[in-house]
Structures are given as C-alpha cells and as structure tokens.
Amino acid sequence: MSLYDLLDKKKKARKSFENSEEYEFYIKYRELLTKLPRYAFLYNKEDDFDVMRANIVIYSILNKNYIEKEVYYLSKQFNINNKNGFNLFFNAFKEKISELPYYDEGKTRVYVPFFSLPLNIIYYKNPEKLLSYPYELLKNEYQESAIDCFDVYGAKLYDSYFTRLIKICSNGSEIAYFHYDTNTVYIVNSQGRLDNKIVLFDRYVKKIYDNHMIERLKNVLKFYFNNSRSEFIDALYHYQFISKKMYLILKKGDYLTNE
User: Fold this and answer.
1) Contact 141, 130 (CB under 8 A)
2) Is 54:42 a contact under the CB 8 Å cutoff?
3) Across the chain, how many H-helices and E-strands are there?
4) Which of 50, 113, 163, 229 is a good FRET partner for 157, with 20 to 30 A between their CA atoms?
5) Which of 177, 181, 245 is nearest to 210 (CA)?
6) What confidence tens digit (pLDDT) does each residue in 158-200 have?
7) Do 111 and 102 touch, CB atoms closer than 8 A?
C-alpha cells in the first residue's frame, strides 16, 4: 500500500461526498452526459474527482443551452441589424450570462469547455452569430464539435468557477488543488487528469487545525514536487496535517521510497 493509499484508508471520519451539493448536482443532471458520447464514461461515477470532472461538462451543457436560448429571445426584443439595437442586445446578453460559471483563457471567458476556443469566442463575444449558418446548427448538432476539454485546457480548467477547488501552487504543467469539503489535495497533470490525491487528517488527529490551509499546504507541497519523500512526511506532521501516530508509521515503514 502506498503512502497516499494509507492516508486515504486511515482518513478521519467526515461528511460523505455522496451527501455533498456537488454530488447531488451530478445525480440531478448527469443524464445530460448521454447527449455527448465523448463524455458518456462519466455517467456512473462515485469518485469525488471524477464527479468534479463530470460536473464541468454538465455545467458546460447547461451554459450552452442557456446562452442559445437567451440569444434567441433577446434577438426578438432588439433589432440587431442597427447599431443601437445591437448594442442594447449585446449589453443585455452580457448581463444575462454574468452569473454563469466560466473559465478564463486569456481574454476569453470559456463558458462551454467542450468546445474549442474559437467557438467559445463566439459564445462570449459574438453571440449574434449563433442565429445564422453554420453556428445555428450547434443548437442541436454539436456532438461532432465536442473536444476533450480536459486535454485541451489542461490542469488550468479546474482553476475556474466550474469547481470548488482552490489552487495551491503549480510545478511546471502540474497544478495542486485543495477542496475544503473533502480535505484533499488533488495533483492534476497537463492532460487535466488526476496524477495523485493526498487526503489530509488521519483518524488519529484529535482536532483538525484548518487555519491558513493554503499557505501551510504550499510549504508541504514544495517537498512533494521535489520528490523529497522524507521531508514531505516531516512537513505533513509539522504543519499538522497528520497525527504523530501516522507520522511514526510513515517514517518506520517503506513509505519513504515506495509510491
């Protein structure tokens, strides 16, 4: 058993992820995933990170549907063929989408990550094009245009309003995120996949110290990214993420060298 498996197995009792708002959202809307064959593999997941990935896609579908609907209705309210009418249309559109989750890619807000950046520019900056050919076809015929959003946008996609993850730090193309509800660090690679997860606070911890979490975790993860296993374990204990009992178990076993 690896160090990380042991931390997961011995984690302190906490609220089940299946009782979280994120999981409830997933169960409520996961049927939408069947509309995108590329993402059908995310339909039946229980793992917390997989559910977070699925929710990014679900939010994307909901965003797409909402944007297309509002563009249609607003085009009926304003005459977009003259400058003043178009300005009223565009300002109203910006107001309508202001509360939707998105990911920042440069100067473009990506509202539909399973679409390429050029298509997202249309959904954000040129919504009127959705009313005419060929973009009007995207309303019903979009499966072939779907990309692998995790591969294309990478680890940065999780640093967005599509998740509740908090960015801690990065190391090259890898980014470390923290989730306050799961008390887990997720190491995400450049393909947007999970490289590792570090579950904090084992069952022997008497009281969870959760102040200044991000700063403390930065001090721990520098040893993780430097592959300094002994110092990483020392830091987990020093910054109160594991108990003394767990610390001694990790230092005495073969966890200093084995994954």
Assistant:
1) no
2) yes
3) 9, 6
4) 229
5) 181
6) 999 999 999 999 999 899 999 999 999 999 999 999 999 999 9
7) yes
